[in-house]
Design brief:
Layout (H helix, E strand, L loop, with lengths): L2 E6 L3 H15 L4 E7 L3 E2 L5 H6 L4 H4 L1 E2 H7 L3 E4 L2 E5 L4 E4 L2 E2 L6 E2 L2 E4 L2 E4 L4 E2 L7 H4 L6 H21 L5 E6 L3 H20 L9 E6 L11 H14 L2 E3 L4 E5 L2 E4 L4 E3 L2 E4 L3 E2 L18 E2 L5 E2 L2 E6 L4 E2 L1 E3 L2 E4 L4 H20 L13 E5 L3 E6 L3 E4 L1 H19 L1 H14 L10
Parallel strand pairs: 1-2, 1-11, 2-5, 11-23, 13-14, 13-19, 14-15, 21-24
Antiparallel strand pairs: 3-4, 6-7, 7-10, 8-9, 12-20, 16-17, 17-18, 22-23, 25-26, 27-28, 28-29
InterPro entries: FAD/NAD-bd_sf (IPR036188), FAD/NAD-binding_dom (IPR023753), NADH-Q_oxidoreductase (IPR051169)
Family: Belongs to the NADH dehydrogenase family.
Protein name: NADH dehydrogenase
Amino acid sequence: MMHRIVIVGGGAGGLELATRLGHALGKPGRASVTLVDGNLTHIWKPLLHEVAAGVLDAATEELSYAAQARWNHFRFVAGRMAGLDRARRVIRLAAWRGEHSGVQTPAVELGYDTLVIAVGSIGNDFGTPGIAEHCIFLDSVAQAEDLRQNMLERHISRVAQGIDTALRIAVVGGGATGVELCAELLDANRTLAHYQSRKEGLEHLDITLLEAGPRLLPALPERISRGVRENLQQMGITVRTATAVKHADASGLYDAGGKLLPSDVMVWAAGVRAPAFLREIDGLETNRNDQLAVLPTLQTTRDPDVFALGDCAACPRGGGASGNVPALAQAAHQQATLLVGNLRRRLDGKPLQDYRFQDRGTLISLASYNAFGKLFGNRVIEGRLAHFFYASLYRMHQSALYGPWRTSRKLLGDAIARNTRPLLKLH
């Protein structure tokens, strides 16, 4: 019987792994490769803040899992993992009902010989009262679209009513997502004003960025943190550090002293955790953030047939470094590359190699205003060069999925399309 590899999660790491394993093992008939995801399409998660601002149209950028499977010799199954039976080597996919058809699909089981869990991460509200009920998260395309439509509908309504007071937006979390979202929302507001032949616009958004720690972007050098803060403030964005949010209600956010920050739209981008269904799933070891504990080979600590990669894996850095691998797209890409080789070795009965995190740097984009980066150790770059490297990250991801030739054709198509569609999604 052909070896069955099942990958759960079609994010950056999971889809890259399925694509490469399809060619390495699926095409020559050495293994069957199956990708499972609850969505039908993929979009690179670091782009969700652009979808939320309307700068990026998800419909033009998303990739069909079924098409990718057909092109790359693996199988796609639509479904959400709800359980695991390690003794029988099966995963359980949850029952679901069609949103439009009402058709009921019962729960099903899917067998495996090697299981790879790559379900990514979701926002972590740390149990803060009112956050789940009143804040918007940016974990999926659907949530990003909800934020975009929320903003657009509010704007249309305010214009119709002749309301001139600013729309108050609070973004919680001074990491990359929060910082980039603030800049994109402000930039999108400029563009919207242009389409409405208005010279004003900046005063119609009142954006506040809240961070519980002493500075923005704590994982990056102080120089970048300081430069980003100065840029945001020059744009007109209010930045408040050392401000922990203790609860939220319909009127806004409350800090540790009980002071209210009145807000019309609240976005939570202050930390991540793995999906809750992984919590000690069938006895697998997890940490307090529900991440699966893995060995340096990316095998889970209690089952060598189950691997985990990306944000849902608590993986040691390796090489004598302390702590776990950070939840970054580059880490998921590196781990997918390692697993392609390790799963081939597993089929050949050879020992597996260990993963060691290689920090390739971090890049931050402030929309059209500026960009910052830390590359090649601690070298700091800014401006056009940083913008170039930032844009190249997505093209590298596309190249891993489409191949260099199709990516080049897509680049050409994108360049042509810029002259045939608006700069902002206006519907």
